[in-house]
Structure formats: structure tokens, C-alpha cells
Design goal:
4-stranded mixed sheet; about 260 residues
Length: about 260
């Protein structure tokens, strides 16, 4: 794949600087096809290909060489590479791959590191503990701090989240609908993370449909029915796994550690 990408880059440059147009245009088309039908691509290869695609799209002559269908094939190759980054990250941490539904693969996806002392933000849900809203309960080790953060206080709708959620007490009893609050966290530890852009979606998991009694409404399969609210997405999100897979004990410990240092943003 490296060879094909390098050849495409060289041929695009040669075409733009007046090389043999017929020969180069035919080879560019052939290389684009081979790349689009080829094997998996690394993150760095996808970035190089994205730069080449920008060069092609911004050159009037090359637009007629690499027509829309071929450009679409290149974009699809880039998106697949980004999906592979996300899929591998979730698999490594033993996480639910359905979370990938919240990622917009039209934007870059890459692995990074949050260092101790970095400040991140999260729109948090609360639970009622002894009559007061809290991010955790010491007796039950319940914490509502999640694994998705952002670098600044941006509207939660741009992170693919409904601003509303079902408020409960520590026993899970439904108490009504509440609005999320934004908190900031000065991280007390280093953490590997995945950075991506949130996808526009219908949030149908934070608010459930209920009867007047508060009991959940369920579909024909017995699953709770959500109340979909469109969220526009578009903002960068930082996913930080707080524990491996089903390691609930470690996840709770880190979530509570973060909840204890949370500050209103």
C-alpha cells in the first residue's frame, strides 16, 4: 500500500507539472482503483491519501482524470481505515463496538494520550443521593461519570448527546427528567484515548418513554423505548476507557476518582 500511495503522489505531481498527460492519467486511474480495492490501510497511509485526494480535487485538470466515482472510492478507503482505528481500539479495551455508531468517519480518528494535569470537560448526568444531586454514591459505588470527554465546554448536542436524561436515585427509581451539567476534570493520571468527531444522530437512550406511573414502556421485544432527540454532532470527542472490558471494579474506581475532583464548568 505504501508503494501505491507513493506512486499516486508522484504521478499527481508529475501531471500537475506538465508530464505526459495521457500516460500519467491512465496510471493515476489504475493506481486509484488498486488502492480502493486493496487491503487495509494504516492511519498514516490514510492521512497521506487524504492529502493526495485534496490535491486532486483542487486541480481542474485532474478532476477530469479522477472523476467523482473514483474520488468516492478513495474517500471510502480513508473512511474504512478510520473505522479500523476505532474498531481496533475498542477491541483492545474490550469495549462495545456499537459505540462506533457515534463517530463521524468523515473526520480523522486517531489514538492519543491524555497526560496527568490535562483539563477535560464532560456533560454529566447525576443521581440523587440523600436528597441531593451527585456524581457518585460512596455506599453503592455508583458513579455517573462516563468515558467520553471534550477539550472545551461545547453544547452537548454537538457531541451527539441529548441535554436531558432520566433522573433516578441510587436504587434506580425514576424521579423525573433533568438537564445535564457540564463539569471539568483536571486529570489525576495519564490515560490513553481515542479522538474523533461526533456524528449527528438521534439520542434515544438517555430519555425513556414511560407511563404516568413512571414504569418503562417497552416494544414488542421487551426492550425499553427511547424518546429520540436529534443531535447535530460535529465536535471533537475524547474517548478514555476507564477499565478493560467487563472490569467493572476498576471502571467504578476510576469513575469515582474523577467524580471526586469534578468542578462545575
Amino acid at each position: 500500500m505504501d508503494y501505491l500511495i507513493q506512486q499516486l503522489s508522484s504521478d499527481v505531481h508529475a501531471f500537475k507539472t506538465g508530464g505526459n498527460a495521457k500516460f500519467l492519467s491512465d496510471r493515476i486511474k489504475d493506481t486509484v482503483y488498486k488502492i480502493s480495492e486493496g487491503c487495509r490501510m494504516t492511519h498514516n497511509q490514510a492521512r497521506k491519501l487524504e492529502f493526495i485526494l485534496h490535491e486532486i480535487s483542487s486541480d481542474q485538470a485532474l478532476k477530469w482524470v479522477v472523476y467523482d466515482d473514483l474520488k468516492r472510492k478513495l474517500r471510502d478507503s480513508i473512511y474504512r481505515a478510520r473505522e479500523e482505528v476505532a474498531s481496533s481500539f475498542y477491541a483492545y479495551w474490550g469495549k462495545d463496538p456499537s459505540q462506533m455508531n457515534g463517530i463521524n468517519f468523515k473526520h480523522d480518528v486517531y489514538i492519543g494520550m491524555i497526560t496527568k494535569g490535562t483539563t477535560l470537560y464532560q456533560w454529566c448526568k447525576a443521581i440523587i443521593v440523600n436528597g441531593k444531586a451527585s456524581l457518585y454514591d460512596e455506599k453503592t459505588n455508583i458513579s455517573t461519570v462516563g468515558e467520553y470527554f471534550c477539550f472545551s465546554k461545547v453544547p452537548q448536542e454537538q457531541l451527539g448527546l441529548s441535554p436531558y436524561y432520566d433522573l433516578t436515585d441510587v436504587s434506580g427509581k425514576f424521579l423525573g427528567t433533568a438537564k445535564r451539567e457540564c463539569y471539568k476534570f483536571c486529570f489525576p493520571f495519564d490515560a490513553e484515548c481515542m479522538l474523533s468527531a461526533a456524528r449527528g444522530t438521534y439520542d434515544n437512550w438517555n430519555n425513556m418513554q414511560r407511563y404516568a406511573s413512571g414504569k418503562l414502556k417497552r416494544n414488542s421485544l421487551g426492550r425499553p423505548q427511547g424518546m429520540p432527540l436529534w443531535t447535530v454532532g460535529g465536535q471533537q470527542q475524547v474517548y478514555i476507557p476507564l477499565g478493560f472490558g467487563d472490569d467493572i471494579k476498576n471502571k467504578k474506581r476510576l469513575a469515582i476518582e474523577l467524580a471526586k475532583i469534578a468542578q462545575p464548568a
